[in-house]
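In the design runs reported in the main text, the only information available to the sequence generator was the tokenized backbone. The following block is the verbatim input for one such run; it is reproduced so that readers can re-run the procedure and compare outputs position by position.
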């Protein structure tokens, strides 16, 4: 068992080191875009492909994260990927032309917003068209993707492009041309390194952007853990302060009044 664990750890650390050595400049570019959007009273959003929803959740309403990070998550069970059955259907939905235009039609986008687009392969129609929409609406796009894997994939986008070719800034997960990191006896690869690096990318974006905001003299709207005394009241006040840049249900009265009663 220890041998297999060591193989996984070694594979992840190799990918991680390449990531650290090559992506600093891209994080700085992304941090500038996010800072400018927030500084100008615009919004920052994150949207993931079906298998990457966990990265969206990682950045949404987490202690130590931005209160103003808006997830694009759908409450309609027919649009929420984790609710789709059979699960194989979600990969077909992602390939449908213009599906993202239908899904995004009620999102409160504004010119000058920044949208983080997370997809390891970045080769399905939905994610490519999402980046195209960003350009059409005058928004910035930041891709979190594995360019090595993407180059080996056939795109389903009608324009023949991949996410990394369309986005304004690309954070490369520095993975291989397979999602798995460990090869087993039958020749298949298991253990996705891109998911681990995806979480690392998400948190690195938070740190890089908070540092850039501090550099420019702005205080980052960071949430506190509600397990600590007074944090719930602090968070409620923070959400109220930035309510024009928050677009998820916390700002409904029932949520606000509940948290204001805690502390």
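Verbatim output:
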């Amino acid at each position: 068992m220890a041998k297999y664990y060591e193989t996984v750890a070694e594979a992840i650390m190799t990918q991680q080191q390449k990531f650290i050595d090559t992506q600093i400049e891209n994080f700085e570019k992304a941090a500038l875009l996010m800072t400018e959007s927030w500084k100008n009273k615009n919004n920052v959003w994150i949207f993931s492909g079906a298998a990457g929803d966990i990265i969206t959740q990682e950045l949404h309403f987490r202690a130590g994260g931005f209160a103003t990070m808006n997830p694009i998550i759908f409450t309609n069970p027919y649009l929420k990927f984790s609710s789709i059955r059979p699960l194989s259907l979600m990969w077909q939905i992602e390939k449908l032309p213009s599906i993202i235009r239908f899904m995004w039609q009620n999102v409160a986008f504004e010119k000058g917003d920044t949208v983080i687009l997370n997809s390891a392969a970045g080769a399905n129609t939905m994610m490519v068209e999402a980046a195209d929409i960003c350009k059409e609406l005058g928004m910035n796009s930041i891709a979190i993707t594995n360019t090595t894997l993407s180059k080996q994939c056939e795109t389903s986008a009608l324009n023949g492009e991949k996410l990394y070719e369309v986005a304004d800034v690309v954070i490369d997960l520095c993975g291989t041309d397979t999602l798995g990191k460990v090869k087993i006896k039958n020749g298949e690869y298991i253990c996705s390194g891109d998911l681990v690096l995806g979480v690392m990318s998400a948190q690195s974006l938070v740190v890089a952007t908070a540092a850039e905001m501090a550099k420019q003299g702005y205080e980052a709207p960071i949430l506190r853990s509600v397990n600590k005394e007074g944090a719930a009241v602090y968070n409620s006040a923070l959400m109220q302060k930035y309510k024009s840049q928050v677009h998820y249900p916390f700002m409904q009265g029932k949520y606000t009044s509940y948290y204001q009663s805690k502390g």
